[in-house]
Write a structure and sequence with these properties.
- This protein is an alpha/beta fold.
- It folds into two domains: 293 residues, Rossmann fold, CATH 3.40.50.620; 56 residues, no CATH class.
- A hairpin with a 3-residue loop joins strand 6 and strand 7.
- The chain is elongated, with a radius of gyration of 25 Å.
- It starts with a strand and ends with a strand.
- Bound molecules: zinc ion (ZN).
Length: 487
């Protein structure tokens, strides 16, 4: 398997530490609100990797954290540790305890993952009755369940001389690690300038880029709700230490792959790597892989904290299916920036429904997998998850002269990785298809559109697409003609 390694700055062979095994730590959600479409991209991309590794025969050991304490509103963009705890802020807003906020939004994450056909970290489908209560049995790790491990790893970092303490917090001293900024190649002074622009709350802090390992329940945080006792006083762990502690507690002092969004590189993963070296004397993670940004049409970053973008329920309200979102994100390589818009999602929906209807036309009899196609599928998967080649391969297979039953069996096999439910279409989905002769106005529009396309009058064809949409019907152009679905 080849993937793009952020530290190597190139596509490299992923050689597992243990033959036949692959250990993966995936940065997971901070559970203070409904999951944002920008985060969903990461989870779909890494779900495809997870499924690919299972398909390729690896025994996958995967962990995904759930951050339910200590993630400050300010940490995402600048790295300052002195914002509001996202959990506390939301708890105040909703008038309930932070732990209840966490539980509520863990359930909403599970709902979204289930709808998007994302596997649990242990590789199972997410059961309908899975809730926050038993989420850890399925491979998620809650930060508040690992505070002891966090304290242990901070102690190691302290013993190795990488820390200093102020009245407010215990810090990691970044000047003690010569290659601290290895990810970005930034000079420490440049990074410091960026962080200095915000208000320093702790005047005893030595370098602006130093970051909190343990925050004490004093000053700004004297009313922080979730606290634990520690060698540095009562308080709570820093966000970055959570991932170092949970990753090594569950996967060991060395593991293969760490996934996350590219937005984590300059601060969160830079700090996580520093902590790992501080505690264990080596980097712990063999390969860091990151998915690119999801951008909105104004070229800006889509982010939950800035508002203005959608959650999955909002997208469903627009008439989309969760699998449209899945298709959009898996059809584009994780290393490519995506311009997110309703139009882009519409394109994904058309492509997915087109694929669905072709698969439906194959009938229900399953033959045997066409090996020539399977081996090309494997080859494309192993080449840095080349999804565009895979989708082209599926279309080629559908047009091929192979037996229908064999094509169906092959697609069923490939869909273990795609997770698009291409074969197990629900009766619902198929019954939404428009049947000719139901409505003479619609019949006329269909006929007119078919002839518009035949005479290459694409402008008129697009207009009719709009008209049909106004009637509540979605046009899908397939190789075999036009299909119509109720929206
Ligand atoms: Zn993390």
């Amino acid at each position: 398997m080849k993937l793009y390694s952020t530290l190597d700055r190139s596509v490299v062979d992923i050689l597992p530490l243990k033959e036949g095994e692959m250990s993966i730590y995936s940065c997971g959600p901070t559970v203070y609100s409904r999951m944002h479409i920008g985060n969903i991209r990461a989870y779909v991309n890494w779900d495809v990797l997870h499924r690919a590794l299972i398909y390729l025969g690896f025994e996958v050991k995967r962990v995904m954290n759930i951050t339910d304490v200590g993630h400050m509103s300010s940490q995402d963009d600048f790295g300052s540790d002195f914002g509001d705890d996202k959990m506390d802020r939301q708890a105040e807003k909703e008038g309930i305890q932070p732990i209840d906020i966490a539980n509520k939004y863990i359930d909403s994450v599970l709902d979204d993952f289930r709808a998007l056909n994302i596997l649990s970290p242990i590789g199972s489908i997410i059961p309908a009755d899975l809730t926050f209560k038993n989420v850890e049995k399925y491979g998620w790790a809650r930060a508040t369940s690992y505070v002891d491990e966090m304290i242990q790893i901070i102690k190691k970092i302290e013993e190795n001389g990488y820390t200093y303490e102020t009245e407010q917090a215990l810090y990691f001293d970044v000047t003690k690690l010569p290659d601290y900024t290895i990810f970005t190649g930034q000079k420490l002074e440049e990074k410091s300038i960026a962080s200095r622009e915000e208000v320093e709350v702790d005047t005893q802090k030595k370098n602006p880029a130093d970051f909190v390992l343990w925050m004490k329940r004093v000053g700004k945080y004297k009313d922080h709700i979730m606290n634990w006792s520690s060698p540095w006083g009562e308080g709570f762990p820093g966000w970055h230490i959570e991932c170092s502690a949970m990753g090594t507690a569950i996967l060991g002092e060395n593991f293969d792959i760490h996934t996350g969004g590219i937005d984590h590189v300059p601060v969160h993963h830079t700090n996580e790597r520093a902590q790992n070296i501080g505690a264990f004397g080596h980097p712990v993670v063999k390969y860091w892989v990151h998915n690119e940004w999801l951008l909105n049409t104004d070229e800006g970053k889509l982010s939950k904290s800035k508002g203005g973008a959608s959650s999955l329920p909002e997208i469903l309200d627009q008439g989309f299916d969760p699998l449209d979102v899945r298709y959009l994100f898996l059809s584009i390589n994780y290393r490519t920036r995506i311009q997110y818009s309703e139009q882009a999602l519409q394109g994904a929906r058309n492509a997915r429904l087109g694929l669905n209807s072709k698969v439906l036309s194959l009938g229900t009899e399953k033959g045997s997998v066409v090996q020539a196609y399977k081996s090309r599928f494997v080859e494309y998967l192993e080449s840095n998850l080349n999804m565009s080649a895979i989708l082209a391969l599926i279309n080629e297979l559908l047009r091929s002269s192979e037996k229908k039953a064999d094509i169906l069996a092959t697609i069923l096999d490939l869909d273990n990785v795609l997770g698009l439910n291409l074969v197990n279409l629900s009766a619902d989905e198929t019954s939404k298809q428009y049947i000719l002769g139901t409505d003479s106005e619609i019949d006329r529009l269909i006929e007119e559109r078919v002839s518009a396309k035949k005479s290459k009058d694409y402008k008129r064809a697009d207009e009719i697409r709009e008209e049909l949409l106004n009637h509540g019907y979605q046009v899908v152009d397939t190789g075999d003609g036009l299909q119509l679905f109720k929206k």
